[in-house]
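Box 3.1 A note on notation
Throughout this textbook, protein chains are presented in two layers. The first layer is the amino acid sequence; the second is a token string describing backbone geometry. Keep the layers aligned when reading.
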Amino acid sequence: MKTLTLLFVSLLPALAGAQVPTGALGQLAEIHSGVKSRRVSSYDRNGGNDDRLTAIAPGARATLLDVKGAGTITHIWITCAPGADKLNRDDLVLRMFWDGKDYPSVEAPLGSFFGNGWGETYNFISAPLAVTPGWGRAYVSYFPMPFATGARIEIENQSEQPIEALYFNIDYLEMATPAEGQGRFHAWYNREVTEALPGGENEWGTLGTQGANVDGKDNYLIVDIQGRGHFVGVNYYVNCPTPMWYGEGDEMVFIDGDAKPTLNGTGTEDYFNTAWCPKELFQHPYFGYPRVNGETGWLGRTHVYRFHVVDPIVFEKSCRFTIEHGHNNALTLDLASVAYWYQDTAARLPRSFTRVERKPLPAISPTDIHLWRDAWRRQQGGEPKLWGNERQKQQP
């Protein structure tokens, strides 16, 4: 028997069967039975206009949704106060629990999950996720999130001040019986300050002959999944401390235990459906650059995303998704990501990150660059007319 779940889950393929739907519009006219629309929200139970949760103290957790039975979450909307200049959205941790599990299958900082990195706020547009006008005032998800026996969503305040107001609407379809063949939604945040090569940050061969990377051993990890399902996207946040291009790194995806990459890319920007080292704002429903640096070269912060809505990466046993940090992992970068996928059961995530572990490194400033220039000048003997691009003198 068909259920209304198909209308929304058609955004992504089910675990069962080979057919991959390409969108929901063709199914909008279908009529279904045994399904009822439900909503859990922060509305004022007394009929007034105080439609919010208040005074969520530092260290406290607020439960947004806790329902029993079968269904599919179809829409989430969240906003909170004070503003991000006082309450860092990445100090608020979002967790989702499926089917009575005592561990989350979704855990990520609120801002990074929805598409705003580094505690910043900016508009973000995609098919499954959005951050809306007012320069990032509200967070929206259209990811379908099925469950068989229950669902729970919470936010933990890991900041040093109260959440003064938290507003939310969570819409779901209540079902008499669980929909068949639907995976459980997962999302995981990772962050790493990567290490340069022992011989230096040899990107574009600026320091000599470049090496090769065929096994991806030291790549940045986007996710390592054990189980059956499909990978459906990533928000990728790059803080680059050099004007050198950060994106020569290839994605390498290892499926079902393959020793060599099952899928091997041709460059970071290529995976994100662009080309030739862009730094231009661009937002498509499935990929884009909602935040780019405005500094010299590629110095600074860049946010890119890709969602595999019609081209999911399918696996039977496992999926290890990695990407190089510069060609052959040459660069020191401050990388963070949120990976999104479905698998046949609600699984544990690889690990959690504390607030301290999530804190991004500061942006490199003009003062930092001036100090580097001064150190270089002194190394060159302190000549007063050195311009900056002279080759270093050979040591005797």
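Confidence is low (pLDDT under 50) at residues 1-23. The chain has two domains: 5-183, 185-204+212-366.
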